[in-house]
Amino acid sequence: MKELTKQQSKVLACVEVYLNKTGFPPTRAEICKELGFKSPNAAEMHLRALEKKGYIAIQSGSSRGISVVKSQQNFTQSPDQMPVIGLVAAGSPTLAEENIEKRIPCDPNMFADSFDYFLKVKGLSMIEAGIHEDDLVAIKKTTDVKNGDLVVVRLEDEVTLKYFKQNNHNLELIPANKDFSIIEVDLREQEAFVEGKSVGLIRTH
Amino acid sequence: MKELTKQQSKVLACVEVYLNKTGFPPTRAEICKELGFKSPNAAEMHLRALEKKGYIAIQSGSSRGISVVKSQQNFTQSPDQMPVIGLVAAGSPTLAEENIEKRIPCDPNMFADSFDYFLKVKGLSMIEAGIHEDDLVAIKKTTDVKNGDLVVVRLEDEVTLKYFKQNNHNLELIPANKDFSIIEVDLREQEAFVEGKSVGLIRTH
DNA sequence: TTATATACTGTAAAAATATACAGTATAAAT
DNA sequence: ATTTATACTGTATATTTTTACAGTATATAA
Predict the structure, then answer these.
(1) pLDDT tier at B2 (50, 70, 90 boundaries)?
(2) Domains with residue ranges and CATH for chain A
(3) What's residue B129's pLDDT?
(4) Is B66 helix (H, G, I), strand (E, B) or coil?
(5) Which of B63, B105, B107 sits opposite A63 (nearest CB)?
(6) Smallest CA–C1' separation from B64, nucleotide
(7) Are strands A117-120 and A170-174 parallel, antiparallel or unpaired?
């Protein structure tokens, strides 16, 4: 099987992801939108190349007439098992096997945004936001967070779940419980690592 | 899940076979050709019926925008699309398509107990249990509930989510908000229908 | 007897989509 | 220095496809 160029590989992945999410293949225009191309012909050329190399088949004249012949990644057909990580007092939440308490079968796209793992909540600092002890907060690994986001932040070796608010070098980590006080950090004096942000929550009754 | 008519069943099978063979869904015209209809509207009507009964989802305006939600055969392994139902003021929560606000890809076994649908929470009566407006409560259809369970109960045409407590003919539906009062029902005087119980909760941030 | 649901035909317009053609730009190969 | 392959933009058009509307026919329920 012939090698794919970087862009061809991206296009194939895009088709596969779309197919997985919607159940039918994307149009040229949709591929463009996803990958940032400005001409439908960009997608067309890549698709033709993928066809030539035997990765897809194109039904000429049919809309969305793409079928994936040889998948790049092996999509697991069974439901994903998303890991649950305890909010350990020390160190970053890592996906190392020893930190995974258990796994929950669910779709990483079940919330508005995709997520990477569940964080098990300890303590009552966010209770007024309806976040209880042992709730599982779905975390997307990212450093791209805005004021007001519910974020996972590491200070020294302490990991915490709080609302995020930053003005220049002044970082505030805001709890949702009047018995707790705001954590203020001067970023010139102390480092803070944003591990990710919450995109959702689940709780077992 | 509602029963299908003979023709609807044929159309669903046709879609599934086509999907299996080509990798993308058929158009109305192709369904007609396959099943011998002479008008694309014949296929259209059957597809709309299948959508209403929850077997497929149709992406409006998209060509071939059909995704099979609930397969007749059991060969689609894609993650289940669990329905979200609004807590309507009147009548039971039903799974008829007109009551389904959207669907969420997730595993029906993600909680300790399996569930049938999500109920979208209205109001603040359970806020002290960390259940907010617009949270989605996972409901298992059952009448087998115990005191202390979080249940969906219908009184007359009112559907409500409360804690369950019953002593003989005396039923109490207990909110989790000090501004709300307990609903007391004498079962000799008034009927109460237990629609199901909550097995979990999800919230999108 | 009059609805009501199922099950279509036939037509047509609007919208979505594939796809051809004419270019531009860049890097690597010859 | 010129070709060749990759990687696009931009435009236009023919075709595909959805979808609304107006009917017809039949069986079943109220």
Answers:
(1) low
(2) 6-68 (1.10.10.10), 82-202 (2.10.109.10)
(3) 94
(4) strand
(5) B63
(6) D17
(7) unpaired
